[in-house]
User: Fold these one by one.
Assistant:
Number 1:
Amino acid sequence: MEVPAVGEEANQGTRSSSPCLYGAARIFPRRKMSLYFGVAPQVSTNRRTGRAAAATGTVSSRPLPLPGRPAFCVVWGPTMLVTAYLAFIGLLASCLGLELSRCRAKPPGRACSNPSFIRFQLDFYQVYFLALAADWLQAPYLYKLYQHYYFLEGQIAILYVCGLASTVLFGLVASSLVDWLGRKKSCVLFSLTYSLCCLTKLSQDYFVLLVGRALGGLSTALLFSAFEAWYIHEHVERHDFPAEWIPATFARAAFWNHVLAIVAGVAAEAVASWMGLGPVAPFVAAIPLLALAGALALRNWGENYDRQRAFSRTCAGGLRCLLSDRRVLLLGTIQALFESVIFIFVFLWTPVLDPHGAPLGIVFSSFMAASLLGSSLYRIATSKRYHLQPMHLLSLAVLIVVFSLFMLTFSTSPGQESPVESFIAFLLIELACGLYFPSMSFLRRKVIPETEQAGVLNWFRVPLHLLACLGLLVLHDSDRKTGTRNMFSICSAVMVMALLAVVGLFTVVRHDAELRVPSPTGEPYAPEL
């Protein structure tokens, strides 16, 4: 059944997803079924709840408002618009100031003066950074794209759940797949699968979008396994550079990853909003970057393989390590609780801020600038001047997120929304992430044996993604306004549990000298954690 154009954002085709997708699985209520059969539903607002309701087969002559947004809503609120740009400029200036002062104070390292090493790094960076840029370019407008296709929040939640499930399933076997297929071929495969994922965003068919989310999960697993594995093997085995230079390469990559994310947010805002090309434009713009990354890997990289370890042995060894060391168990608990909340935050920030006229690309760049600021503060805090320990900063990161989530439970109250306060809370969460990830990376490196890290991290990911999926499914049939506020309340309780786990880890490792940053003077560092 074809439907004539309705308003400026009418359906650009027909939807023909199989009824078994929601009939057999029982994941969508009947009133949402019209979205799957090529019928442009009339979106109205329920007087009692404020939710968008779909009337099957009814075509309106007026432009359709977005789901959950009243027709009289002001799309571009000047307050939120100005706040987002001012926050972005302020955070960017702070990051630039800290990084410039760090560069002036730090003498050039031995590795930086080796021409062969620099050429090898550049060969790696040009492919890896293109892949990261393509990944970040899609982030600001993913939720907005699904909303642009008139899917309701519950349906969008299912798409996110599909992506998370795909990530955890492919993540479990990614290392074995990369070792078997070859690291170079795996990087090229990443370019192909992620390009296909972007192409699926051109379709409004729900089943095609689900397939795209599955491809995105596979691509994410390859992005965070194949590239690093290729580099480490080439660094040590083929070029015989000192292993001590590897952390310097990935530390620089982590910094430029933040920079690429900031630039990608601005670029996404430019193509989607400033040029008026719509929310699908960033996904189309990512395809040439992915194609170039794959072509450069084919031309400049050599192939390498590694001896495969049985997946069952990897998981069994990881489980033994997890259960035999209380420090590992507590670290896994903190990671699962903290990062599951971050996944839910990634889903919720757009529907919280977008109705108030927030420029999504600039907001995303502000988030990434806040995260970069947190990483810079981590380096300053662990420097010889302050010499704080990663355990201190991990505790601070969890406390900041707890405070931010409590802010969000009030700033998202139905009828009393405060988008500026919500935006500030989101920035604090990203700042905390900038402190959390290097702290957690340091502690994992010290606590988990290198031979068991792959298996242990696989076990860490399972509860992490299960908790995130459960949170998104809770949102599926809840009221949009109260459901968002209730979800932030649940996330607050989860982060309080993470804080208790941090306290438990603190009591276990407070006398453990192995988990301290070495004293810059070379003398034993006496104070306790």
Note: The beta strands are 42-45, 52-55.
Number 2:
Amino acid sequence: MGSTDSKLNFRKAVIQLTTKTQPVEATDDAFWDQFWADTATSVQDVFALVPAAEIRAVREESPSNLATLCYKAVEKLVQGAESGCHSEKEKQIVLNCSRLLTRVLPYIFEDPDWRGFFWSTVPGAGRGGQGEEDDEHARPLAESLLLAIADLLFCPDFTVQSHRRSTVDSAEDVHSLDSCEYIWEAGVGFAHSPQPNYIHDMNRMELLKLLLTCFSEAMYLPPAPESGSTNPWVQFFCSTENRHALPLFTSLLNTVCAYDPVGYGIPYNHLLFSDYREPLVEEAAQVLIVTLDHDSASSASPTVDGTTTGTAMDDADPPGPENLFVNYLSRIHREEDFQFILKGIARLLSNPLLQTYLPNSTKKIQFHQELLVLFWKLCDFNKKFLFFVLKSSDVLDILVPILFFLNDARADQSRVGLMHIGVFILLLLSGERNFGVRLNKPYSIRVPMDIPVFTGTHADLLIVVFHKIITSGHQRLQPLFDCLLTIVVNVSPYLKSLSMVTANKLLHLLEAFSTTWFLFSAAQNHHLVFFLLEVFNNIIQYQFDGNSNLVYAIIRKRSIFHQLANLPTDPPTIHKALQRRRRTPEPLSRTGSQEGTSMEGSRPAAPAEPGTLKTSLVATPGIDKLTEKSQVSEDGTLRSLEPEPQQSLEDGSPAKGEPSQAWREQRRPSTSSASGQWSPTPEWVLSWKSKLPLQTIMRLLQVLVPQVEKICIDKNVDPPVWYDTDVKLFEIQRV
């Protein structure tokens, strides 16, 4: 932390800047040096001592002074990069300027009048001392800043270890330095792992934070409807103008993938000493995914609309400057490099899932969303890596953490971005046969999740978690339902044996989705029924022998398929179904509902924000008339259960209790909007009802139902004395 005197001097300089109405000349070093030469301020100090209101005041009232401040700060970074930052004072000046620019840049980006400031060759009017820019061929200020940051990230004794014995170094050596010999961490393309140095890590982190701030200008621009807008900061930094592009890309990637937050495995080690590497790893991951944001805007021709997904690396060279970071990532091809990357990302994604006997004894990282985006980019830009992942059993080490994060974030609207990237990764993986085959591996390592206990495979885990997301996520997840079920469709031909729990979950989803009020309430809802029928058909046709649990569940719930086959299409019934939806349904409150036994150590999902919908399929009306009142145990036998007063839709049991006013209020907005924009017609129902793929299932039922009934009749069982009579003390559930 900076000393009290340093803070006072720095604060005095800030006050002088905000109160001066006349422009201060750039040559007035005595004034400008107060901001960086005589102070030792931490980044926390800078943010506290330079309030937002004062930055905006200078921007509005003394724009020339703000321009000069930025120009002089960049100039000091350029000088530091050229000299090599040999003295402690030079290093401190570089850090102070970096922190000051990190603080000020967002307030320049937010003002449209300043938009071109950093890309102009003359930073401001009325200032002298422009000679340096002439030497740089009048580079825009942004380019000078980015090149200085890149040089400083490979500055011996500042951000990397010096390879020289003596301290005598010349400026020429800095310019001739081969930064590929100074890569920060062993891994892809580099075998030597430098000795850890927390001061270097902290200096790198400060510079990466400034780099991210530079890249963030895009956040202050309105979204462009056309796809012609690239981020000029990223575009320049990832171009051939940056001589450090390759070693920096490699350093960032290796730093992320080599990081082991558990360290030496000493319990509570993260409480005993600070981990200076984690903040660096997090910054490195963020810089990587921003530099790899190479979409259709920069990879497709201008005539293409915005639908390209940035896979142009497989095609001809894209027009315009090429993103070297994307280029390097797409060219990684050695198996040992793929193994290093996959192991590293899987280790970090699995970190929050670690279970220990000592609570809170291991360090838990927080940047899983960045890791998922990085993994997505790797798979998207490097198809060889994608295929390596799919043929490796380690793909399950990626799958399980993703399912953990999806389940954990399902009710938290603030993490909807995490939900999307997780689902999209699984959608990408599910398109390949190997992924479906890998899912048959038994699931034995119990990760703490609030899902029902089952004995089965990773496929069971995937489907059970998806069921949980659909039935107890928030409303903003509804657009993902198609993706979730598409993933299940994609893997279904390879699933050799689903557990009874999973089979019941699939049938429960079909039951909920095939109610008339749900089918008729939105134009796309029937797609979900088609997806599920396709899942059943694939398993029956390709994996019938091992899936007796699913076949048994289909037979038990055969009424659903008969109802679909006989779906009414006349206007009065359609109208009645929609009216039934608008009436007060029976509640399906999550409070008090228990879905069998939850896994040990599980915790409930984070609550949704106030005023948001906690469940997507809340309160299917009259579910007690739709769900058979029986539960199948793991061994396949039927048993009757005492009903709980309030059951969630999650477990497919009958819902009982008083009507819920809260549910009615939550549903009203979507009801009115749906009825105002679209209403079903008999012709529309007929258009898709005739295409329902029910033939395979109906044939199966036609053959198997008589056989099952005969088996039941042939058993030597005692006659059910009280069956089918009106017992009051408890409920007998019927098959």
Note: The radius of gyration is 31 Å.
